[in-house]
Amino acid sequence: MLEGSGLSGPGSARTELIAHFPDPVRWNELLSRSLEDTLFLRAEFLQPAWKTIESQKPIYHTEVCDASGRLIGAGLFIKRPGSILSFVGADPGDYLDIITDSRLSSADAYQVKRMVISDVLAVAKARSVYLPHLVDVCMTPLALKDAEQTFYVTAVRTMPAPAMDLTQAKIDRASFRRVENRLARQGKVEFHHWKKAEDVVPRLEGFFDLHRRRWQGTKCGEYFTHAQNRDFFFALAESLGQTPWLRYAEIRLDGRLAAAHFGFRYRDRLVWYKPAFEIELAKLSPGVAIIHRLIDAAMDEGAAELDFTIGGEAFKSRYANVERHVHDMHVSTSWWAANRLRGEMMARRWVRRMINRFSNRSSSDRC
Questions:
Q1: Which of 170, 211, 248, 334 has the smallest set of CB atoms within 10 Å of its CB?
Q2: Same domain, yes or no, for 126 and 232?
Q3: Are residues 143 and 186 in the same domain?
Q4: Can you give the three-state secondary structure of the chain, one letter per residue?
């Protein structure tokens, strides 16, 4: 326990199976004093995901309190096919974790995270929990490595999560102007950046259509053909529209939607989440133009970073000067389950190598 923190060390864990989302104020208060604080773990993000994409499946809600009863750790899980547990929000969320009070020492934080995993596995009568999108700057990957005598821990994959530190970035204004001029020669260019649900929600159907055309013929192109994904974005816009964090941007060329981005501003970061551009205008680089506009918008707002989140797309490397990673990890109490997964992973790696040999697309690219 950190000296002067006022906390008295991990006490006990308690998991309950609930049919509703837990108290969002209590959850957010712990998150706000944790190292894991990210918009993807806010109740305002998780609750829309749970209600739409995850069909309001029962939640395993685990809390750890210190010896005096103060909340110091928590996790939200649902059962997925095969009776494997995973985080609430695992499908749409880019950064996820078990959250712990930042005033805990590293040793106590590790212990709390292990307590959460042990208790939820026991109560759910599950052998395994899949923990995707753990950020390397937080403690869970290290806590799991330290727990290999208790669990069978498998590192499933690691993906880049690059970012642009705007306080250190060297902005190539000449490049910005060239892209803008290329568009402007074709017509009137308009840029809009909305922050309120009443402005964003009416524009989402156009955004969905743009995304489908951008990725037509690929698996990504199917994303918004699923009603639960469309419902999630509507619900997310309504939820975040009640906060200062919603950001939706468009570039229009003579009134035609040329590029769009659905993202967030949280703490000191502008968060890159779901972009799209008109594939018929690809030669005019509208996707690049909206990145430039978002960089300027972020700097105007005083943001310190443009966080490109998960994915190793080539365009991100042109702007990123910070490299973080996220980790997917599988934790099991069963030797058999862990080794079956490792065998499956070896087969998948071989398939990916064959695909990448004949494709320019990285396995970590996002859409």
A1: 170
A2: no
A3: no
A4: CCCCCCCCCEEEEEEEEECCCCCHHHHHHHHHCECCCCHHHCHHHHHHHHHCCCCCCCEEEEEEEECCCCEEEEEEEEEECCCEEEECCCCCCCCCCCEEECCCCHHHHHHHHHHHHHHHHHHHCCCEEEEEEEECCCCHHHHHHCCCCCCEEEEEEEEEEEEEECCCCCCCHHHHHHHHHHHHCCCCEEEEEECCHHHHHHHHHHHHHHHHHHCCCCCHHHHHHCHHHHHHHHHHHHHHCCCCCEEEEEEEECCEEEEEEEEEEECCEEEEEEEEECHHHHHHCHHHHHHHHHHHHHHHHCCCEEECCCCCCHHHHCCCCEEEEEEEEEEECCHHHHHHHHHHHHHHHHHHHHHHHCCCCCCCCCC
pLDDT at 141: 85
Q: Is residue 78 part of a domain?
A: yes
Classify 47 in phi/psi space as left (phi over 0), alpha (psi -120 to 50) or beta: alpha
Structure tokens, 7: 């906390």
Show the domain range for 75: 10-158+327-357
Show the low-confidence residues of the chain (pLDDT under 50): 1-4, 360-364
CATH number for the domain spanning 35: value is: 3.40.630.30
Quote the CA–CA distance of 268 and 91 in Å, as a whole number.
25
Say whether both 175 and 69 belong to one domain: no
Does residue 312 sit within a domain?
no
**What is the predicted pLDDT for the residue at 3?**
47
